[in-house]
Design goal:
mainly alpha; Helix Hairpins; 3 helices; 65% helix
Length: 114
C-alpha cells in the first residue's frame, strides 16, 4: 500500500485552504473551495483502489477475480455532482453580490438591504 495518494490529497486540501485564507475575491474563493473539494476525490479513489483490480463487472468472470470497490466509485461521482451544484450556487451568489454592491472583495461589501 502506498501513502502517496493520501499525501497528494492532503497537499491539494492544504493548497485549497491556503487559497481560501488569502482570498480577496469571491470568485477566487469559490475556485479555492473547488480545489479543496477535489482533494476528497483523490482520497476516495485512493481508498477504493485495489492493485491489479478490474472493473466491477462480474458477468462472465471467474470467482475470486480482484475488482475495485464500486461503492467508492459511486461516492466519488456523487461528490463531483454535489461539488458542481455547490460551486454553481456560490458563483451565482457572488455575481448577485457584485450586482448589488459593485465589488467582489469580501471586505468592501457593505450590508446589503433588500
Amino acid at each position: 500500500m502506498s501513502y502517496l495518494p493520501f499525501a497528494v490529497a492532503a497537499w491539494i486540501c492544504l493548497v485549497g485552504i491556503a487559497g481560501i485564507a488569502t482570498s480577496r475575491n469571491l470568485i477566487h474563493l469559490a475556485i479555492c473551495l473547488t480545489v479543496t473539494q477535489s482533494s476528497s476525490y483523490v482520497l476516495l479513489l485512493s481508498v477504493g483502489y485495489v492493485k491489479h483490480g478490474k472493473a466491477p463487472i462480474f458477468i462472465g468472470t471467474k470467482l475470486g477475480t480482484t475488482a475495485v470497490d464500486p461503492v467508492v466509485q459511486a461516492l466519488t461521482l456523487t461528490d463531483i455532482v454535489v461539488s458542481v451544484v455547490v460551486i454553481a450556487l456560490i458563483l451565482a451568489l457572488a455575481l448577485d453580490a457584485h450586482r448589488l454592491s459593485g465589488t467582489v472583495d469580501p471586505d468592501q461589501i457593505t450590508d446589503i438591504a433588500g
